[in-house]
Amino acid sequence: MIGITKLLCNTATVSEVIKYSGQEGKIPPNLLQFSDINRPLVVWNTTNRCNLKCRHCYINAEDRSYDGELTTDEAKIFIQDLAAMKAPVLLFSGGEPLVRKDIFELGKMAADLGLRPVLSSNGTLIDEDKATKIKEAGFQYVGISIDGARKTHDAFRGIDGAFDAALQGIRNCLNIGLKTGIRFTVNRFNQGDLPAIIDIVEQNRIPRFCMYHLVYSGRGQELIDMDTSLAEKRAIIEFLSKKAVELQEKGVEVEILTTDNHADGLFLLNHMREKEPLRAEEIIKLLEMHGGCSAGTKFANVDPRGNVHPCQFWQDYTVGNIREMPFSQIWNSQDALMVKLREKYKHIKGKCANCAYSSLCCGCRIRARAVSGDIWAEDPACYLSLEEISQKTDI
Predict the structure, then answer these.
(1) C or N terminus of the chain, fewer CB within 10 Å?
(2) How far is CA 377 from CA 108, 252, 389, in A?
């Protein structure tokens, strides 16, 4: 995750991060991406069931019942284990997590045990009553997916009215003081809607906008041709960078981030080298603290049946199952792939291996495999030129 607003607008500093070093329970959520916590943020796909059928879904969710998903009691044991190992965040995802009848009970348990529960939802089920229950359960943040203007979003989500329902869900959360943000997965069909979505963010005072780059997994694996071009990726980040600064200057409190392409951070670094060299010094230190791709390190995934994966997009590689062994033990095991993922920079190839910033990025291993068949190959979504990635990392 690359915090554009934080990096460009000086809203995160190295000294601020260092201030909270070793104080895991006190570090603000907005600084977690730069922290030295070596236990992962855990994305739990609570269910495969979803009331929508999104074209880019990495877990192939559908609106039907699935056998073998974790029971309430099994989920509670899992949450207790995460609390004991002091995982910094538990993200309840899906499918659509709100279709689980025990979601509020489990969220409250996580909060009571000191975890930071957050919710990833399509927003269509969040009426006023649901929003209140989400807040009362102790969820600290709700990320709601909006993937374009009304027509685009409804086509992408597979149901008419999805856009209006999702936007109303956001408003219902904001109206009761529940921190909420938009999640936008960019592709070549919706990139033209990006300015309109940023306008919605500003007009509704939505405090967070996170743009996701497309990762080729699940149904997304069929969507390689749907991804934006390298030139388009660069133009998109240039646009978001300008908007982040513009909104800050206007006094609009919104945080703009991107995820699933760490080249964005390097682009911002090179941009600031020319514009504000002193700030560039801070940025490179923050990127070093961030550490690039977090799969297998600061990031983990548990699917609806309890299988543990290096990240949510790596559904075909299982490290273990929490029904057989606690997550904490699985995560700390010496699984061969996991060991390599924790030293990605030693194994990456091609353009990634020749990048002066390899330890700050390491590319996306899932995209590399989808295109080349080799998980250590260069990330096909890197839009930086050879000249840009050959610059020395010192300022």
Answers:
(1) C
(2) 42, 41, 16
The residues that bridge with 212 in the sheet, in sequence order, are 185, 259
Classified as helix, coil or strand, 140 is: coil
Q: Which of these, 140, 287, 147, lies nearest to 211 by C-alpha position?
A: 147
What is the rounded distance in angstroms from the CA atom of residue 97 to the CA atom of residue 74? 16
Superfamily grouping for domain 2-343:
Aldolase class I (3.20.20.70)
- Residue 337 to residue 214: CA distance in whole angstroms: 23
**Which class for 222: exposed (0-12), middle (13-18), buried (19 or more C-beta within 10 A)?**
exposed
Q: Report pLDDT for 217.
A: 83
Cis amide leading into 95 (omega within 30): yes
Q: Which residue has the tokens 């990635």?
A: 389
Give the span between the Cα atoms of 268 and 153, in whole angstroms. 29
pLDDT at 62: 60
pLDDT of the residue at 390: 87
Pairwise CA distance, residues 189 & 214, whole Å? 12
- Which DSSP category does 168 fall into? H
Structural domain boundaries in the chain: 2-343
Asked whether 217 and 366 are in contact (CB, 8 A), the reply is yes
Contact 119, 141 (CB under 8 A): yes
Comparing CA positions, the residue from 218, 240, 203, 261 lying closest to residue 382 is 261
Distance CA 217, CA 370 (A): 8
Q: Please report where in the chains the tokens 């020395």 appear, as a residue.
A: 392
* Model pTM score: 0.90
